[in-house]
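Instructor's aside before we start: the two examples that follow are unrelated to each other. I chose them only because their records fit on one page, so don't look for a connection. First example below.
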Amino acid sequence: MYLQAVPNGKLQYRHIEIDKINALKKSKGNFEAQCTLSMLARREIQWWIDNIMQAQKSLQDPPKIDNIIHSDASNLGWGGI
């Protein structure tokens, strides 16, 4: 949600995600394990600290929902095997 509200936010999380993915692989999916952040990820976090107050939209307001799509995991019907 923050990515849509903060200008250029979509450009400032790549290395954080890479570090998270690597830590999860190393810990076999344990979200409670420690994660060491690279210098690039630390710079991205600092960017967020410096820019979060420039959000163009309210971070509390959920987006309006136009359509709801319901699906299931069955193999029957369109596209099923």
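Example two begins here.
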Amino acid sequence: GQVQQVTTFLAKEDINIATMQLYRAARGTDAVMVIECDKEVPQSVITDLVELGGVVKATYLGLKED
């Protein structure tokens, strides 16, 4: 359910996922989702992601411009 919830939310925000990786130590434990997007993700979207049920933390790493 969590993967679907996050991907559906990003799709509604018109944010395309380029790659996604999911890690967890064992069944039933917390997971880490790493998502690479095709465009910059606004801070408001990151904030809203944390408000989704089950999302503990969302961190955005953008490209550093010269």
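Residues 2 and 27 are 14 Å apart (CA to CA).
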